[in-house]
Amino acid sequence: MGKVYYISKNVGFGLLVLAGIALVTIIALSIAYDKEKAKNQGSGGDEGADGTGTPSPTTTPLTPEQPWDRYRLPGSLAPVFYDVTLWPRLTPDANGLYVFTGNSTVVFRCVKETDLIIIHSRQLNLTTFGGHHARLRGRGRAPAPSIQRSWFVAKTEYLVLQLSSSLAGGATYELYTEFRGELADDLEGFYRSEYSEDGVTKVVATSQMQATYARKTFPCFDEPAMKAVFNVILIHSRDTVALSNGMEIDSADAVIEGALVRVTTFEPTKRMSTYLLAFIVSYFVSIQSNHNNLLIRIWARKKAIDDRQGDYALNVTGPILQFFERYYNAAYPLSKSDQVALPDFDAGAMENWGLVTYRETALLYDPILSSTGNKERVITVISHELAHMWFGNLVTLRWWNDLWLNEGFASYVEYLGVDHGEPGWNMGDRFILYEVQKVFAVDALASSHPLSCREEEVNTPAEISEMFSTISYSKGAAVIKMLSEFLTEPVFARGLSSYLNTFAFNNTVYTDLWDHLQQAVENTPGMNIPDTVHNIMNRWTLQMGFPVVTLDTRTGTLTQQHFLLDPESVVDRASQFNYTWFVPIKWVKTGVEQQQHWLLHKSDTNVLMKATAAEWVVLNTNMSGYFRVNYDPSNWNRLLRVLSTNHKAISVINRAQIIDDAFNLARAKIIRSSTLALRTTKYLSNEREYTPWEAAIRNLDYYILMFDRTEVYGALQAYLKKQIQPLFEHFKNITDNWSKIPPGHTDQYNQINAIGLACNVGVEGCMDLIKRWYRQWMENPAHNPIAPNLKSTVYCRAIAFGGVEEWEFAWRMFKYSTLASEASRLREAMACTKIPWLLNRYLEYTLDPTKIRKQDATSTIQSVALNVVGMPLAWNFVRARWSYIFQQYGTGSFSISSLVTGVAKRLSTEFELQELKKFKEDNVHVGFGSATLALEQAIEKTRANIKWVAENKALVLQWLTDEST
Ligand SMILES: *[C@@H]1O[C@H](CO)[C@@H](O)[C@H](O)[C@H]1NC(C)=O
Ligand SMILES: *[C@@H]1O[C@H](CO)[C@@H](O)[C@H](O)[C@H]1NC(C)=O
Ligand SMILES: *[C@@H]1O[C@H](CO)[C@@H](O)[C@H](O)[C@H]1NC(C)=O
Ligand SMILES: *[C@@H]1O[C@H](CO)[C@@H](O)[C@H](O)[C@H]1NC(C)=O
Ligand SMILES: [Zn+2]
C-alpha cells in the first residue's frame, strides 16, 4: 500500500507545532501513501518469531498437530479461476444490519493428493448443502469425492472440508459456496463507508483486501502466491455505479429476489493475487481521459468532481503511467486505470490492480483551496501506487516476509515518477528528508531489525501487519536507491526490466531481482563492482542498522562501525557479517567530485582523502549511500568554516546531511558534545534553502521535546529567534509583504517553516500577522484570506494563542468543510489549543465516529500529544482507554503502533519511564497487537531520553545563553 503507513510520513514530524517549532506541516503531506506509510512513523516493524525479536501476540505453535492449525496453506491445491458474484446492500436489513450476499465458484487443480480442502474464510455465514458448507464437483472426467465433514477454524481463518477419499493429483475440481457477510464500517475486506452530500447520507460499499481480508469477502485461497483469474459480477441498485479490477463489459437490469437491480459483469482479470482485488458500489461520478488509448478515470463524490478536485490526478496519471512503461520497459498490462477517492480509508492508498483506492487527501487537489504540500502528496501517492502496477502486481513477492522489497521499491521509484510529472521540484532533496533521515532514526535503535526476514518468521495476520513498517518502506527505498546509484541507473533499469518480463503474472523471492541485476552487470562491459549484487546487498538486508563511516583526513583512514543512537544499548541480535557493510562512498574534496571508494572492511585507507589545512572533504555526496559520516575534528572545523563563509560550496543535500549527522553523532556520543551539533546551526542565519533548514528544525524538535518543560526553553527560543529572523524578513520581502506566493516549489515549504518558527519564538510582527488573518476569516467565513500553503501554520498558531472562540470557529469550519485536506488541517490545528478542557473534550471526540472519523482517531490523539499542554492529557487518555482503543484498532491495523510512538515521544523522566512500564504490565491481558514493537521502542527511547537530558541540559543551556546574548 501506500505508505500507509497510513498516516503519513509526516505525522511525526509535522505535528510538533505547538511547542515550538512547527514546521513541517507541510509535510505532512508527505507521503503517506499506502498503508504504507501510514503506519509508519517511528514504529519499526516486522519482528519474527525467531526468539530474538519481540514475541508476537499470537504464538505460532512450533509443531502444529493438524494442517488447519498452521497459518500457511498446505499448497496441495492451486486455484485457476474464480467466478465471484457479490451483492452489497446499501440500506440496512430488517435487523438494522448492513450486509452483502454472494456466491463463488473456485476452480482449482489438485497439485498433491489430499483428502482435505483448506480454504480461507472469515466472518462469513455460509449456506449449507446437504449439511456441508460448500459443494464440490469434479471437472472433466474427474469424479469428486463426497464431503464428510466441514468446519471453521477461527484462529487460522479457515473453512476445512474433510473428504471421503483423496482428490486426484493433476485433476481439476470446482468448489461452490454461498455466503452472507456484514458490510461493516471496519475498513477491512468488503466494508461500508458513509458521507453526506446535500444533507443526505450516502453509503458506499468498498474494499481493502491487503493483507488478509479477501477471505472476509468470499472463501478463497488468500495468499499472494495463489494467483488466479477472477470473473466478477456485482449486483447493485440501478442508481449506483459498480467498479472492479477489470473493465465493465456488460450491465443489465434484472429482478433478483424480488428486487429490480442492475447486474454489472467485468472482464476477466489477469492472473493476480487476492490481496489486489477491489469491489466498489457507489454514487460516485468520474472524469476521464484517453492517454495513448488507455482509459483513465478518476472517481469521487459528485461535489468533489464538480469542484474540479480530480483534475490534477487526471492530468498526472497518464504521463506517470507512460513514464513507468518506459522505465520498466513493459506495457501497462490492463485495459483501464481507475482511481477512486474514498471518504473512509485506513491506509493512505491501496494499489488494487486497475482500481486504486485512496484517501481523499491523497487523490483530490483543489486548484484554489489546496496547498503545494497537498499537491505534492497527491502526485507522490499516485506515483507510488502506479509503480506497484508492475512491481508488486504484475510480479508479486511470494510471501509477506519480502514486503520490504515491494514497498521499498515503490517508495524509491515514486520519486522518479514525480520528477517526471513535475520537473523542477527537486524531489531528490525530499527523498533525503522523508525517507533516509526519517528511517535513520528508527534503524539506529538496538531494537531495530533487518529488512529481510525468513518466510517462516511471518505467519499470523498480526505478524503480516507488522511488516508494514518504516523500515520496510523507507530503508527499503534507501538501500534500493543506493543500489541503483552504484550500478548506475541504466544498468539497474535493464536488470529490472528483465526481472519483470521474466516473472510477469507470477511470484518471486527477493533474490530473483538480485539475480537479474547481476546479469545486467555481467552484460555491461567495463562495469565493476567489488562483489556480486547478492553479496553486497546481503550486508544491507540481512543485518539491521547502518554504519557510521569515520574519515581521518590527517591519514586518509576510513573506519566503519554500527551506528547506535544510544551507545550503551545492547545489541542482542547477532549478525553473520559482524555489523560490517560493503559501503559505496562517493565523495568531494574542496568542491570537486572524486572517484568512488568502496569500504569493504572495518577499516581501510585512501590516501587521496588526506586533506591539508586549505582543503576539506565531504563523504557521501548527495547522500547517495545509506550511512552516516564523521570526521576528525580539524575537518569538522574546516567544514564549519566553509559553512559560515561560503556555504554554497557544499551542495544543499550535503549541508542538510552535515547538520543531521552532527546532531545524531552527538546523541550517539560519537562526537563528544552537543556543541559541535549546535555549531552547525550557526550559519543558518545565512541559509535560504529549505532542505538544510528542515533538517535543522527536525533535530531541534528533539531539543524542544526534551526541554519545553524546562528552563532551557527560554534560551532556546532566544537563539532561534536570532537565527530565523533573517529568513522571515527574506520571505516578507520576496512575497511583497506576504501578498505573493514564492515561485520555487521548495521555497514555498521554506516560507512555511520561516513563519511557523518565527511565530513560535516570538519574532516581531509574526503573531500579529497570523491573528489578523484568522480574525478576518472569522469575520467572513465564506472568504478565507489565508493562502493555502500557510493555512496549517496559521490555523494552529491562531488556535494556540487564541481562546474558545477561535477553537469553536475551527470546529464549525471542520464540520462544514467539503475538502478533505482542509478538514484535516483544521483537525490537526484544533489539537494546538493550550486550554486543557478543550483538549480533553477533543480527545473524547476521537471515540465518537460522528465527530471524528474512525480513520482519523489515532492521528488526532497523536496531534494532541505533540502539544506540550496536551501531552499528559493524551497519555492519560490512552492509558485509561487502552482496552477500548485496542479493540477498535488493535489487531490488523497499523495506526495503533504510531499512536504508541506518538504519545510516548516526550517522555524523558524516570517517573515517566516507570509509568510506561506500568502501562505495559497493566495491559498484558489486553495485549498490544501490532503496537508491540512500538511499545518496546518507546521504552528504549525513553531510557535514552533520560540519559540524554541528564548529560546535555547544563551544556546546552550554557551554549544557547552565550550565543543568544
Ligand atoms: C450466484 O448468485 C446470483 C445472484 O443471486 C445468481 O444469479 C447466480 O445464479 C448464482 N450463481 C450460481 C452458480 O448459483
Ligand atoms: C451470521 O450468523 C450469525 C449467527 O446466526 C448472526 O448472528 C449474524 O448476524 C449473521 N451475519 C450476517 C451478516 O447475516
Ligand atoms: C490540468 O491540465 C489542464 C490542461 O493542460 C490545465 O488547464 C489545468 O490547469 C490542469 N489542472 C490542474 C489542477 O493542474
Ligand atoms: C511461475 O514461475 C514458476 C517458477 O519459475 C514456473 O514453474 C511456473 O511455470 C510459472 N507460472 C506461470 C503461470 O508463468
Ligand atoms: Zn506501496
UniProtKB/TrEMBL annotation:
Any Pfam family hit: Peptidase_M1
UniProt feature, compositional bias: Low complexity: 52-66
Feature type site, description Transition state stabilizer: Y473
Domain Peptidase M1 membrane alanine aminopeptidase: 312-540
Cofactor binding description: Binds 1 zinc ion per subunit.
EC number annotated for this UniProt entry: 3.4.11.-
Cofactor(s) essential for the protein: Zn(2+)
Family in the record: Belongs to the peptidase M1 family.
Subunit structure of this chain's protein: Homodimer.
Protein name: Aminopeptidase
